Amino acid sequence: MNRELSRRQPAYGWRDFALDRLPFVAAFLVGITFVAAVILLDVHQSGTDVSSGSLLYLAILAVFTLGAWLAYDGFRKRAFYRELNAAAVRSHELDAPLVLHSASTREHQAVARLLGGLHEAYAGELARSRREQEIRRHFTMQWVHQMKTPLAVIDLLLQESALEGRPEGAPPDGRDRSIAEETERMRRGLDMMLHTARLDRFEVDLNVRQVSLRELATAVLHDYKKLCIHHSVFPKVVGDSTAETDPKWMSFVLHQLVANAIKYSKTKPGSKKLLVAIEAASGGGCTLTVRDEGIGIPPQDLPRIFDPFFTGENGRSTEESTGMGLYLAKRVCANLGHGLYAESTLGLGTEMKVTFRPGGIHRM
Predict the structure, then answer these.
(1) What is the per-residue pLDDT across 28-54, written as a single tens digit (0 to 9) for each?
(2) Which sequence spans correspond to the domains of the chain?
(3) Residue 40: helix, strand or coil by DSSP?
(4) Among 91, 166, 307, 309, which one is least packed by beta carbons within 10 Å?
């Protein structure tokens, strides 16, 4: 709103120019009045006479000289004011002060030098901050990849332990199952950290194509097969459609939605359903809905579930909650040009709906 207003109104116009010089004009006129008064007083004391025409001529000459000077002053500064207005329109851009080239007075030159110095200092600080951010991002990605190696070794040791110490077909004991679950939690946490680091350079890691949403959802649910069995959650995929998206990023979004659905369904007793429904939308496009029968989201928390680090009432009762999963999913969907919305009834379950536009994703 303020930016649009600044585009309609110049930052510095002729009205501002006149108002700035109004005290000078007033002082000049007062000075002329005093001069005329002194002349009249002197004439009166000396007994001589002076014509009113001469005084009027003197006043007109003084006012004309003042007007000529103001006109000259305004026109010589016109280019600077034009550049100032252009910079104000681009005030949200980093290089806006660099358009001030036509400073005609020492005052304007000092202001232009000050703005140029501030721009240079800010640009240097921004470049330094970006370099540090890139170093942190690179370190994070490298660290995540290094931490995945021990997890793979733990999985391998669990498989070997299962083959050596348990009869064929027998279920894993409680210790091995707990280790496997905690390992999977660590893997999901590392994946979230990796995708968080990659979001800053989203366009570099983008591969868009037509994707079968049913195949994508089935693959994601397969990753949670053991967890669903353990918590009596029965997943199902209905419908099918294709959408233009990035399969890897969309898989990350579905992992967050499915993981949340299981996490907030497992505390309810008995069997629960987890439905992934895919259907074409009227007017083109399609929707993918992840519907669970979990504990639901309190109404006061629902508007904030996509905020970063917001865990809400449910999250505070769950040690696994970081408040980042849905935030990252929302950001990924926004970058892909998809919508992500939530509906929930406390105690009955939650629906997370991803909408795919008929025109495809945003072009990066």
Answers:
(1) 888 877 777 777 777 777 667 666 777
(2) 2-104, 211-356
(3) helix
(4) 309
pLDDT at 359: 66
Rounded Cα–Cα distance for residues 278 and 260 (Å): 19
Element at 80 (helix H, strand E): helix 78-89
Mean pLDDT computed over 162-174? 63
DSSP class of residue 276 equals E
State both tokens at 70: 């103001």
Q: Hey, what are 38's tokens?
A: 């002194």
Q: Measured between alpha carbons, how far is residue 151 from residues 119, 142, 194, 198 in Å? A: 48, 15, 15, 21
Average pLDDT over the chain, rounded to an integer: 83
pTM, full prediction: 0.68
How far does the chain reach from its first CA to its final CA, in angstroms? 27
CA pair distance 93, 86, nearest whole angstrom: 11
Give dist(CA 213, CA 205) in Å, integer.
20
Q: What is the pLDDT of residues 98-120, one digit of tens each?
A: 778 777 777 778 888 888 888 88
Please work out, in degrees rounded to the nearest 5, the angle formed at the alpha carbon of residue 143 by the alpha carbons of 137 and 148: 130
